[in-house]
Design goal:
The protein is α/β, with parallel strands linked by helices. The chain has ten helices and eight strands. The protein has a domain of 216 residues: 3-Layer(aba) Sandwich (Rossmann fold). Helix 1 packs across helix 9, helix 3 packs parallel to helix 4 and helix 4 runs parallel beside helix 6.
């Protein structure tokens, strides 16, 4: 990691970077010459992440704390400044899952996910943005979204709300921080994780990833589903000066595919003199709106026969 890159000398915080996608982001930033503040709730996991970066010639330090509370956000910024003397990049990746259907979801299930994903993103970005503005740093804020936040997903009320909320916050921050030269974007990864490992549809891809073998082209190309490393390049790019003009965007990446998600726009517009009464809607709604109703959830094509795996039943 001694070679100079466009990111050499910069400093980043990556929350939830002890393992999985977050670790891949931290390692790629370090490979590009960035010093990294690693974050995890488990000390051994965080230490292992730091060791993996320093063993490869990079620089890293760990903050062991749960994301969500303001003191954690402040500690992360302080660690960057105290250890490396600056802060340029924030990647908010930390998250938890408490999946269950609406009628079985407890207050704790909901609050835990919202607290880590949504509040954690807010508190960390607030702390970093405050530092950026007060010190005239053209900082980079990269928040992690999900297809679930864009499309919805069965059994993930809390997660969908949090991830959709992150996109809404980032669009607002892009407006508020533009004058200061600070960018804010959302990355929507599609990759093999502990969550996708439990989905039978992705079994063949997860098997290949765990074995260190190439994923089948169907997953990488047709579905845009790949490894954590496939996502990390976009994180580093958005952290660089090359992406100074990119802000307020939701960008999907996975496997061989890159996508730019649209902001919500009206798909049809109609007017009714005097306003839309019940009677007017009853008479005209099907003709005006019926053909434009939007789908929900993700739709996957059938798996090729050679990629179907038998499902194990209890």
């Amino acid at each position: 990691m001694s070679h100079a890159t466009p990111l050499s000398g910069k400093v980043a915080i990556v929350t939830g970077s002890g393992r999985g996608l977050g670790l891949a982001y931290a390692q790629e930033l370090a490979r590009q010459g960035v010093s990294v503040v690693v974050n995890d709730v488990d000390a051994d996991t965080a230490a292992g992440a730091v060791a993996s970066i320093t063993a490869a010639g990079g620089s890293a330090v760990a903050v062991v704390a749960p994301v969500g509370p303001t003191p954690t956000a402040d500690a992360l910024v302080a660690a960057a400044l105290d250890t490396f003397g600056r802060l340029d990049i924030l990647v908010t990746n930390a998250g938890v899952l408490r999946d269950t259907v609406l009628w079985k979801m407890s207050d704790e299930d909901f609050d835990t996910v919202i607290g880590v994903h949504l509040r954690g993103t807010f508190t960390c970005v607030r702390a970093a943005a405050t530092h950026f503005r007060e010190n005239q740093v053209a900082g980079r804020i990269i928040c992690i979204g999900s297809p679930t936040g864009q499309r919805g997903n069965f059994g993930q009320t809390n997660y969908a709300a949090a991830k959709a909320g992150i996109v809404g916050m980032v669009r607002t921050w892009a407006l508020e921080l533009k004058r200061a030269g600070i960018t804010a974007n959302v990355v929507i990864p599609v990759a093999a994780t502990t969550m996708t490992a439990t989905v039978p549809y992705f079994a063949a891809a997860v098997e290949a990833d765990e074995a260190g073998a190439p994923m089948p082209a169907f997953f990488r190309h047709d579905l845009g589903f790949g490894t954590a490393d496939d996502v990390a390049g976009l994180i580093a790019y958005l952290a660089s000066d090359a992406a100074a003009g990119v802000t307020g965007q939701a960008i999907g990446v996975g496997g061989d595919r890159l996508q730019l998600w649209s902001h919500p726009e009206a798909v049809t517009t109609a007017y009714h003199d005097g306003g839309w009464t019940f009677e007017a809607l009853d008479a005209e709604f099907p003709a005006v709106v019926g053909d434009h109703l939007q789908s929900v959830g993700e739709r996957f094509p059938p798996l090729p026969e050679d990629l179907v795996r038998p499902q194990v039943t209890a």
